[in-house]
Write a structure and sequence with these properties.
The chain is an alpha/beta fold. The protein has 16 helices and 13 strands. It has a domain of 204 residues: 3-Layer(aba) Sandwich (Rossmann fold), CATH 3.40.50.1100. A 6-stranded mixed beta sheet has the order 4-5-13-10-11-12, with helices on both faces. A 4-stranded parallel beta sheet has the order 8-7-6-9. The protein binds pyridoxal-5'-phosphate and zinc ion.
């Protein structure tokens, strides 16, 4: 079991005890988990990691909390797929996909929830809550069921049917709110002060929760033989995942697990119907202007992203870009990924692949670069996005003649 570290303010550096706190009292900056990197470096090697659990918890020394059992044991260490067929279509020689569609509840949110719930347990909470665009709802409800927490999950009322059913099935409290995610989030911020006895995974436990996304960078480096890619493409909603992937690569170097200082270009992907961070990147702005989301990529539909500014800064510093794609391009991206690599991703995956395609076509992603694209959620949860765009090749009566008539080339041999 790994002891909880302290928290420190990202803006002014003030140190706080490792409790359910998320903003600095002095400057209102976000709090982050602080580690003793020297101690981690002295006790963590590639070998100790390789001998660890086959889950996110193999990187336990660099995460808050510790493995609590349950769905933890199945979360993370997802495949890094060498995508040669997709790469050939896009003109990229060294393309990999981090396939998080195979996590226990079908998205990368299992990583952040695994970490948040283990911290919730250490801090003595018996109830957990979250504001979700869908995938976080699934993960919080499922992990709570297995771990024995009461759960209160808040979602916008217009989510995909599958995301509602695959949350409600776990039997916790599911509260559908008549508003968009930003309305849900505001309500949850108010509820957090009313309910200090609830561990709100993405509000009062946000510093811990966010750390879970670093495991994506840790796994990619380990799976590439302890090397980093040249360029990664990451979908952006709140922006947390993108900033933590960057932090993950840096930490590996800091604790001596990488030979060279990583220079990974980090590019962000958004839907045109909700692209506040990409808009700021393109206009050169320093502030994120909130938008009202209107896109089929509902898991990314955060109009006022909490970590938007940090994501923008991370992309700029790394030499990456932010790009956005239309709903039509998102569906084409989902189809392209499925057709070439046999992976059915949700709309967020369509956003990532469509943006990757755009960046490859414009030369931002270069043919010889080692590229990793993060495919963060399973397509079975957003089937309505492709309904009407894909259908049977033909529909026929059950007879040989009908088949021969409908598909003469296939029927004759
Ligand atoms: C939540 C989510 C994201 C984005 O995560 P942020 O950390 O909020 O930017 C990406 N993909 C999927 C499938 C998600 O559910
Ligand atoms: Zn501060």
């Amino acid at each position: 079991m790994n002891a909880i570290k302290s928290l420190s303010c990202r803006e002014c550096g003030r140190v706080y005890p490792a409790e359910a706190l998320h903003v600095c009292d002095f400057c209102f900056g976000p709090l982050e988990v602080a580690y003793d990197y020297e101690q981690i470096a002295s006790s963590t090697t590639r070998e100790t990691i390789a001998a660890g659990p086959r889950s996110v918890w193999r990187y336990g020394p660099l995460l808050p909390g510790g493995p609590a059992g349950g769905l933890d044991e199945e979360t993370g260490l997802t495949p890094l797929v060498k995508a040669d067929r997709l790469g050939a279509e896009l003109g990229l020689k060294s393309l990999w996909l981090k396939n998080d569609t195979v996590n226990p509840t079908g998205s990368f949110k299992d990583r952040v929830v695994s970490v948040a719930l283990s911290v919730a347990r250490e801090l003595g909470f018996s109830a957990v809550a979250c504001a979700s665009t869908g995938n976080l709802a699934n993960a919080v409800a499922a992990h709570s069921a297995r771990a024995g927490f009461r759960s209160y999950v808040f979602i916008p009322h217009d989510l995909e049917m599958a995301k509602v059913a695959t949350t409600a099935i776990y039997g916790g409290n599911l509260i559908s709110v008549e508003g968009n995610y930003d309305d849900v989030n505001r309500l949850c911020a108010e509820l957090t002060s009313e309910h200090p006895d609830w561990a709100f995974v993405n509000v009062n436990l946000r510093p811990y929760y966010a750390e879970g996304s670093k495991s994506l960078a840790f796994e990619v480096a380990e799976q590439l033989g302890w090397e980093v890619p040249d360029h990664v493409v990451v979908p952006v909603a709140s922006g947390s995942q993108l900033t933590k992937i960057a932090k993950g690569f840096e930490e590996l170097y800091r604790v001596g697990l990488l030979a060279d200082e990583p220079a990974v270009r980090i590019s962000g992907a958004q839907a045109l119907g909700c692209s506040p961070v990409a808009d700021a990147f393109k206009s050169g702005a320093d502030a994120i202007r909130p938008v009202k989301p209107q896109t089929i990529a509902k898991s990314l539909a955060i109009g006022n992203p909490a970590d938007g500014w940090y994501a923008l800064e991370t992309v700029r510093k790394s030499g990456g870009v932010l790009e956005a794609v239309s709903d039509g391009e998102i569906v084409e991206g989902m189809k392209l990924l499925a057709r070439t690599e046999g992976i059915f991703a949700e709309t967020a995956g369509g956003v990532t692949i469509a943006v990757l395609e755009k960046l490859a076509a414009s030369g931002v992603v270069k043919p010889g670069e080692r590229v990793v694209a993060f495919v963060t959620g399973n397509g079975l949860k957003t089937v309505e996005a492709v309904a009407g765009h894909v259908q049977p090749t033909v529909t026929i009566p059950p007879s040989m003649d009908a088949f021969a008539a409908a598909m003469p080339a296939a029927a004759s041999r």
